[in-house]
Amino acid sequence: MRETLWQTGLFSDIEVGAGKTAPGSIEPIAGARVVTVQKLDAAQPATDWVAEEVPVALVYNGISHAVMMTSPLMLEEFALGFSLSEGIISSPSEIYGIEVNEGCNGGRSVEMTVSSEAFWKLKQRRRSMVGRTGCGICGVESLSEAVRECRRVGNTQTFDMRNYAQALEYLSRVERLGELTGCTHAAVWVHPDGTLAGGAEDVGRHAALDKLLGLRAKNGWTDGALLVSSRASYEMVQKAAACGVEILFAVSAPTALAIDMADKYGMTLAAFCRARRTNVYTHPQRLIGL
Fold first, then answer.
1. Which of 104, 135, 138, 243 is catalytic?
2. Is-catalytic flag, 135?
């Protein structure tokens, strides 16, 4: 089973418009369905698009490690990105195989075969996590696991701010489900020349980021910048830093801990990002023309 919206940075044959698409104007798509709704200002029931949300079990060498609530799309990328951003593996080469299977109650199971070293590290962490939408640390067994140490990121990347406004526009382009439902977050990777590499969306901001980080790893994208449609919490910075991201733009606010972590890890962190403004909190030297 494979349901990938953004494998190479190109849309499918369904175009995304400027406003929320009315039910019935296109065929139902994976990750969304139509429901009946009663509106305050209408006598007759209407219909509306809603985003699907399903439990996804991440299984390593036959052992279930985590159950996360996500959109049922790009689950291979999600599993890879989660494994990297949570420090379970150090590189994609440590995963020998990924298989996505249907589970009970509409859920999914992502079965991964990982190296013996990665599996040993996973068992050492003794972590059993049940995630909910918007929650990144449910089930963490100690405070040290919640805010774990990451290596400093490299110092090789720059981003020309002449491409900044164009890069922000890619977030809305990627939100295919969001266009229909108003219910998703997006994450995109932008090349240094301002062109879009690819993106991902999910009902949860952490899952959207993990999917993007997995997509980035699969395609070997290293040069460029990461943009997210959400706030920049410490988990978002921590996940990005664990994958070596040097530049992170967030549409909404940062937290104090996120700023401290970005500074410590050497990451450029900008937030409150809009077409004509942004606040750069750490390491602004990477942003050309700032």
1. 135
2. yes
